[in-house]
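quick one, 97 residues, struct below
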Amino acid sequence: MTLDDLQSLIERMYSDKDRERGTPATFLWLCEEIGELGSALREGSQEEKCNGVADVLAWLVTLANINDVNLTEAVQAKYGSGCPGCAQLICTCDSKA
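---
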């Protein structure tokens, strides 16, 4: 599944609810899912980790959809030519930054 496929799938399944909920509430849901992912990464099973990552990604896709952001284009523009900081394919930025 590509980012475009995922974005279309989430749009098809949830677009009416997502647009009605709006950006602020959707962002709060994303933050809650990030918290749950943190717990899973700390002490959860592999299945809980996988589910947590999938949930965070789905809520991020939802935010992109309701804000008219094409994820493929956004990621390509930001990272397609290498690290945004040093412009290298293997980052050479200071690891403390």
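The chain has three helices and no strands.
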